């Protein structure tokens, strides 16, 4: 498996060491799992932003009118 070298804050290192003790996993396993999840979340966020941008463009092109949030809240009794 390829290796990387990273610098982290002291608090992050402490949290990693705590996780090693609690889980029995080694630092590489925890770091790989955390980085994998974080990168997947970044990709999901980017996809969500892209879809939101496309939806906004479609809405603007449709000529539809937005309803102010205050009106929606009032209608819902919020």
Helix content: over 70%
Number of helices: 3
What is the mean predicted local confidence, pLDDT? 96
Name the structural class. Answer: mainly alpha
Rounded to the nearest angstrom, the distance between the terminal CA atoms is: 54 Å
Shape: elongated
Beta-strand percentage range: under 5%
For the structure shown, list the relevant keywords.
3 helices, 78 residues, mainly alpha
How are the elements arranged and paired?
Blueprint: H1 10-23, H2 27-62, H3 69-76
Structural account:
This protein has three helices and no strands. It has 78 residues and is mainly alpha-helical. The chain is elongated. The model has no long low-confidence stretch (mean pLDDT 96).
Briefly characterize the structure.
Helices cover 74% and strands 0% of the residues. It has 78 residues and is mostly helical. The N and C termini lie far apart (54 Å).
């Amino acid at each position: 498996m390829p290796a990387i070298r990273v610098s982290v804050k002291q608090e992050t290192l402490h949290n990693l060491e705590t996780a090693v003790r609690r889980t029995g996993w080694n630092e590489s396993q925890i770091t790989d799992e955390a980085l994998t999840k974080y990168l997947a979340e970044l990709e999901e966020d980017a996809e969500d932003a892209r879809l939101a941008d496309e939806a906004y463009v479609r809405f603007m092109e449709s000529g539809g009118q937005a309803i102010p949030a205050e009106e929606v809240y009032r209608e819902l009794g919020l």
